[in-house]
Design brief:
Two copies of one chain form a homodimer. Chain A has 191 residues and is of the alpha+beta class. Chain A has nine helices and eight strands. The structure holds a DNA duplex (30 and 30 nucleotides).
DNA sequence: CGCACTTCTTAACTTAAGTCAATGTCTGAC
DNA sequence: GTCAGACATTGACTTAAGTTAAGAAGTGCG
């Protein structure tokens, strides 16, 4: 749990009082590998802070899946859209490995937001960070070919490659596993 | 300026005191059509609230352009990435029409954040909203064909079609003008 | 050990976007 | 009115991803 506090320090320093108020609302949870944390159609009423493990955030339409994001230790995971709007989630959150995380309920979080401006601000920082991540990802779809996106992934996010099977990477890149396989083949030929 | 306050009411109610503190930091500006509000390489130190007009937020690489977003009356426009990180902007913000907007400087805004928790929270709401917009857009790139994205644009965002030339729409959809032209042709054949 | 299952690769074919070039179409400036 | 420039369309060709199907490689389980 102290690890979590350290992660927050990247964004903002919470006083002991603020941290106590926050942390006593957290509930520790564990999830086996390949298990749903949030189902499709469910309203997301929580934010989870990952201590250990990995999650994928994906969308299932007519049996086809697309992975919107991966989350790892130190990340906050939630369907933020459903959380904010109160609408049923279109996405599924699934653990990829056995994971440990801390859940805070929306109701509790909003009470903290009201009681502690610093925690509200932490919420802003988290939202801003989410925005930066997804905006960068959007730009990569606007400008780059799947091959370029794969290269960038290799370079920047090697954690993904260790923990995530090929076909999920393909989904994350917005292509089919067959296409990723061909991209990889083209690459070895060049090298 | 009261129009701007009304827009904020969608997110949060500011007291007169809060609004006064905020609004006296705003500077009214005007810009002719097709003029840069932010250059590539410049650090973005402001947020602009649009009263009238339209902007495009785009990226220029080796002479090729991709439009990341459009902004219209009621929207907050900024290079939020550059604003938050202090890094030079990769994107350009350009007015599409003659526009009127209110600028607030980062320094002033951060002072307001510190002095008025409600304004800090408004900042959170704006960041959250930005996130929702860009996350939805990312999903459309993950799942939908350019043709589907164009259809959705027609249905949801007719304002874009009135104010924005074809070749910019293509760029926004992540395709070339020729391809958009062909998509439109396929459409008329079907109908 | 061998079977079943999942993942990854390969191949043949289809589909649609990119590229390049030419031709319309429209608009504003003079 | 005409000319120049920007925008949109069209056509021929290239490129790469999607589709379908088959087989190879790896993994876990009885």
């Amino acid at each position: 749990m102290e690890g979590l506090r350290k992660h927050f320090e990247k964004f903002i320093h919470l006083t002991d009082k603020e941290w106590d108020a926050f942390s006593c609302k957290l509930q520790r949870k564990q999830l086996a590998a390949r298990t749903y944390l949030l189902e499709q159609g469910e309203v997301c009423t929580f934010v989870a802070f990952i201590e250990k493990g990995a999650f994928r955030f994906f969308y299932n339409r007519d049996g086809e899946e697309r992975i919107t994001a991966f989350f790892f230790a130190g990340d906050a995971v939630s369907n933020y859209r459903s959380f904010l709007t109160g609408l049923p989630s279109e996405h599924i959150i699934e653990s990829l490995q056995e994971s440990v995380f801390w859940i805070i309920q929306k109701k509790d979080l909003y009470e903290l937001f009201n009681a502690y401006p610093n925690i509200d601000r932490l919420g802003r920082f988290i939202a801003e960070n989410l925005y930066l991540t997804v905006a960068r990802r959007l730009d990569s779809f606007l400008f780059d070919s799947p091959e370029k996106r794969y290269d960038d992934l290799l370079r920047r996010n090697s954690r993904l490659l260790q923990d995530v099977p090929q076909f999920m990477l393909a989904s994350y890149l917005g292509i089919k596993p067959e296409s990723l396989s061909r991209i990889r083949k083209r690459k070895t030929k060049k090298a």
